[in-house]
Write a structure and sequence with these properties.
Number of helices of chain B: 14
Distance between the termini of chain B: 21 Å
Oligomer: heterodimer
Helix content of chain A: 40-55%
Strand order of the largest sheet of chain B: 1-4-5-6-9-10-11-15
Low-confidence stretches of chain B: 364-374
Shape of chain B: globular
Largest sheet of chain A: 8 strands, parallel, barrel
Largest sheet of chain B: 8 strands, parallel, barrel
Structural class of chain A: alpha/beta
Order of helices and strands of chain A: EHEHEHEHHEEEHEHEHHHEEEHEH
Number of helices of chain A: 12
Order of helices and strands of chain B: EEHEHEHEHEHHEEEHEHEHHHEEHEHEH
Mean pLDDT of chain A: 93
Radius of gyration of chain B: 20 Å
Helix content of chain B: 40-55%
Number of strands of chain A: 13
Strand content of chain A: 15-25%
Number of strands of chain B: 15
Strand content of chain B: 15-25%
Low-confidence stretches of chain A: 22-31
């Protein structure tokens, strides 16, 4: 099993800081080093990731993000080899519509599409879009959605009648030559069941090795019970520098820019999430006083500082180039994780740094 | 307001004839809808000076949003009239998608709202509403999108959509103009209230006048003014004789068996606009290509074979230009043309017909891709 290295595309904007505006924690960016997600910048970020030799870019989904399908369609014209892991929410569109969009993206990208199914963990955000299903029902719908999309990719004259969707004589005009693999995130019991049966790669945020091992073992078991084998992927930030000390100095700098009240506000906000994964992230830090940046080192070289102020993946690998490479190798060898989705502050420069400094230190052949 | 010239992008493939994709013999040249060819056509349309490309929607086309985003990197000025069906995606998602396409394309998005006139095709997509319900849903959809683009934060409760604390984080710049097709009374009521440009397929002047009078009245009741657009094929040549010879070739190449099957398929549609197209040729005995000339230089031959816009302007370059001017005088500002094949014919019309127009709108200023201020 080889190591697949992917990077994050900042379609909500990029910057040098953990929070927008370098400590002001305001939404909307600002004059202090924040980069708007305009297409010219996104092209540069994608080309940097391709140049750095990375496999794919995760194109996120959210109210703050540019539409992932469209960003990918545009960026595919400006890159040659890089793949695009497009995050999308099944509940917001009909399976046949998504199946056709995926087929068009395969055509316009030369089959460089990967899909990341995001079921949605925040009821308020779902309702703002017009989706009122509860958490577990949303996962039920995701399962039916994925089943239906795969069926429609097989070609014309497909029928489906389920709880959430009906299709009569639908399907692509011709079978999809290359079907995109399905990456899947979701840490709840409902999510694990759906992942085991309907996904190809199960994604986890960067928890401690012990926490990851527990989930991977369980989901692998569920998949095997369904006669399937999954791959596993982890989503992490990276702060890699020439020396361990420089890396922690950089982490400390990011942390010191964040006002204490921003941390408390963020924790109150994130505590309301329905996402099990979000609560696991929050649990890495007990809310107590932080005397030193390494008080947040929850496992060797794994730093929970990002999650103080940001939802989603809340940890970073922090260390020297050799240490970061060693951790990635360890996650791969000991936990069976083969896909890594990384990001940095800012993404353009950090993806180049990672490609040039860390990748050559990894033992195993990479997937290109 | 001058004449706005647009062209059709063949995202299901391009042909030298009316039904080459269906003829199934090796001489029936078909250009597949691969991205490289579509980029060529888009660049030809831009080079020929057209305002926008209409990117259609159907089960056999590429997704229009994806196509526009990709082609925005291959063109600099051309706008994208993206046809889409409101029923397939939540309105708040579409509102955000439109904002993204404006950001990615440098403000080159126009939207063409297609409610859908064929229940079988709607069911293939997973939509089981009937014709009247679909237009109700389109109205709700457009109301929600409009309020989001206005920057409102709001709750909405309708028959089809419910949203709580909906809002758009970034507003589209500029706000995409809405084009709309639909000839039924339900469609007309939605259009009068909620869209900017009302599109008609290539009907005769008498038929156009009737609809524009009614739409002007309906829009006036809502305190609004509509623009109007006209979707028609073009067969223009140096001389009138050459143009009709080309129309004759197009018709002759279609086997009789195919004509009969095509008419049965069209008859199954619920679309009022489709019925109006069919009425143009219904009951005619066709001994000669010009037996289908339903108004000077307006030929109903395409509609014998294809659903949707079923007529073509046929004539010399000068005659076609005169006809465009004449229809413009009826109140039509926006024209959406197509030809067989589209690449060569867009260049011909751009070079030979457009210069003869007296009321052509000034070409859009060059857009700056990536710039929100464009």
């Amino acid at each position: 099993m080889s190591i697949e290295l992917n990077w994050f595309l900042p379609t909500h904007g990029d910057g040098r800081h953990l929070v927008d505006g370098a400590g002001s924690a305001q939404a909307g960016g600002g004059p202090r080093g924040q980069r708007e997600p305009d297409i010219d910048y996104l092209v540069q970020a994608a080309q940097a990731a391709e140049y750095a030799g990375l496999h794919a870019m995760l194109v996120p989904t959210g109210a703050q993000c540019e539409d992932g399908w469209l960003a990918t369609a545009a960026l595919a014209q400006e890159t040659r080899r890089l793949k695009f892991l497009v995050a999308f929410r099944p509940g917001f569109e009909l399976p046949a519509y998504a199946a056709q969009k995926a087929a068009s993206l395969q055509a316009f990208s030369g089959n460089r599409l990967l899909l990341n199914v995001v079921t949605g963990g925040n009821a308020a955000e779902q309702q703002a879009y017009g989706d009122f299903l509860d958490h577990d029902a949303r996962y039920g719908r995701t399962a039916e959605f994925l089943h239906t999309v795969r069926q429609l990719w097989r070609g014309p004259r497909q029928d489906h009648a389920g709880e959430h969707y009906r299709v009569e004589q639908g399907g692509l005009a011709a079978p999809l030559p290359v079907t995109p693999p399905i990456y899947f995130g979701g840490a709840s019991a409902a999510a694990e069941q759906v992942a085991a049966r309907h996904s190809d790669v199960y994604l986890l945020w960067g928890e401690t090795p012990d926490m990851l091992k527990e989930r991977i073992t369980r989901v692998r078991g569920l998949a095997r019970a369904a006669g399937r084998e999954l791959r596993f992927g982890v989503r992490l930030h990276v702060i890699a520098r020439a020396t361990e000390q420089q890396a922690w100095v950089q982490a400390a700098k990011l942390l010191h820019e964040v006002p204490r009240e921003a941390i408390e506000r963020s924790r109150r906000h994130l505590a309301r999430s329905e996402a099990v994964g979000q609560h696991r992230m929050l649990g890495l830090y007990d809310g107590g006083p932080i005397h030193d940046v390494r008080d947040l080192e929850v496992a060797p070289n794994l730093w929970a500082g990002v999650g103080l102020v940001r939802g989603g993946a809340g940890t970073a690998l922090v260390g020297s180039y050799a240490q970061v490479a060693e951790r990635i190798q360890q996650y791969h060898d000991e936990l069976g994780i083969s896909a890594f989705i990384l990001s940095g502050y800012p993404n353009l420069e950090e993806s180049l740094r990672f490609g040039e400094r860390v990748v050559p230190l990894l033992e195993r052949p990479r997937e290109a | 307001m001058g004449i706005e010239l647009n062209w059709y992008l063949p995202t299901h493939g391009d042909y030298h004839g009316l039904a080459n994709n269906r003829l199934g013999h090796p001489d029936a040249l078909v250009r597949p809808n691969d991205p490289d060819y579509l980029a060529q056509v888009a660049r030809a349309i831009e080079y020929a000076g057209f305002h926008a490309i209409l990117i259609p929607t159907s089960t056999t086309c590429h997704d229009g949003w994806v196509t526009a985003a990709a082609l925005s990197r291959k063109t600099t000025r051309l706008k994208f009239l993206v046809a889409f069906r409101p029923g397939f995606v939540l309105p708040a998602v579409a509102a955000q998608t439109a904002q993204s396409l404006q950001a990615i394309s440098g403000g080159r998005l126009l939207l063409n709202v297609v409610t859908g006139g064929d229940s079988a095709e709607q069911r293939a997509y997973g939509d089981f509403l009937d014709h009247a319900q679909r237009y109700e849903r389109t109205a709700e959809f457009l109301e929600i999108i409009g309020r989001l683009w206005d920057g409102e934060t709001f709750d909405y409760t309708g028959a089809h959509y419910t949203l709580r604390q909906a809002r758009l984080r970034r507003l589209p710049e500029p706000r995409p103009p809405l084009y709309f097709g639909g000839a039924s009374p339900g469609a007309e009521r939605v259009a009068a209230r909620l869209v900017d440009t009302y599109l008609l397929w290539g009907e005769t002047p008498a038929m156009v006048r009737e609809r524009l009078d009614r739409m002007n009245a309906l829009a006036g009741q809502a305190g609004r003014t509509l623009r109007y657009g006209y979707r028609v094929h073009v067969i223009a040549r140096d001389t009138e004789e050459e143009a009709w010879a080309e129309a004759d070739r197009l018709l002759r190449e279609v086997p009789k068996s195919y004509l009969d099957a095509a008419q049965r398929a069209v008859g199954n549609k619920e679309s009022v606009g489709q019925a109006r197209m069919a009425s143009l040729h219904a009951g005619r005995t066709i001994n000669h290509v010009r037996d289908l000339e339903v108004y000077p230089n307006l030929w109903a031959g395409v509609g014998l074979v294809r659903s949707g816009a079923g007529t073509a302007f046929v004539g010399s370059h000068r005659q076609v230009a005169e006809r465009i001017e004449e229809f413009h005088q009826l109140g039509l500002d926006s024209f959406i043309f197509s030809g067989y094949p589209n690449l060569e014919e867009t260049l011909r019309v751009g070079e030979e017909v457009a210069p003869l127009l007296r009321h052509l709108a000034p070409a859009a200023a060059a857009a700056q891709p990536g710039s929100l201020a464009a």
